[in-house]
Amino acid sequence: MNKESFARQLEEQGLSLDSNQLSQFETYLHLIQEWNEKMNLTAITEDSGIWEKHFYDSIVPFLHTPFETLCDVGSGAGFPGIPLAIAWPQRQFTLVEPLQKRCRFLNEVISVLHLHNVQVVNARAEDYAATHRAEFDAVSARAVARLSILLELCIPLLKDDGTFIALKGANAHEELANAAPALKALHVRLEREEKFELGNEGSRINFYFVKTAPTPAKYPRAYGTIKKKPLEVSNG
User: The CATH number of the domain where 31 resides is what?
Assistant: First the structure.
């Protein structure tokens, strides 16, 4: 994939990007490559891979999900949060990332691209949720942890009736089955799932969960406890 095919495929699905937005994506791509020489941001460094597996893959799951505010948990090199912020400049995005060096990169991207609709928070998701409960219309997570853990970290940040979008791969349905206790405990239901093919990378499966009631106050627990006793079928 290149800039032209990226723009064309998105336009075919109803999202038109102007020349300034495409220029922002190009600059972001070069920043990823430049900073990746100094720190481990991504194993995907070729132009075509970044356009398809990072930019396109970040935007497609959100094309039909309305929201005004979104929190991207474990944003890393900025996926999906930064591509979404470029694509929808009128919406507001918060990127939560625990590693300070990655936050430095994200803030550099925001500065160079002149993005005024993004803020970076250097914090763990469970700590951030303690003071920002039920604050966002949508929450996203990509390549962070298995679903049962993600749900406990992300759902407390959602408003009631808000949507959590989990970007998943080959093990998605196994993770979903194991996460049944988390769905019940956190008052969440699976609204829908979407599957699409991403080049030779195979299938992507994205889950869309809706928060049906306030999250019980005891969640999220400390991360050590979440990992040791996840809300999964195998743990009762």
Answer: 3.40.50.150
